[in-house]
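Hey, can you fold this one?
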Amino acid sequence: MTNTDESLISAIAEIGGKVETLSPKNIRELGTDYVNITNRGISLAFQARARFEMSRGTPRGAGPYVLSGIFYYPHGGEDLDPYVGCAPFSASPVSTRDEALLHYGTPDRTEEDEEEIDWDQWSKEARQLRTSYRSDLTISTISVSIPLLPSR
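Sure. Predicted structure:
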């Protein structure tokens, strides 16, 4: 969905966000910009349409900026309150790696750096689900995104 789709604009507004806060400069220079829903602990990532199409395929909607991911912060984040509620694809909150493994099963991929686990990733309902961890294996973010296209 894109930044000009009325249903997306309305849904974001209902939870306290404004699509109008997207910065064309940030999207142009950084590749991504975010609509933060501060009191909900959620951040919505948007990419330029051309970049999204190259990496993820044809989006739904006609706008110039495409919703590419949703980030949930169970322990809060910079300028974000903690996310409270059921985790994506779960019937309950998920705030640690052990809970993620319990709810999501064995990851499709795990990234480790110097024996420290950085993140786990699963495929759920044609979406990419990733949990990123702090050093104590509490979850920093849970993200849901459209998967990247296979490498050619």
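The chain has four helices and seven strands. Let me know if you want another pass with a different chain boundary.
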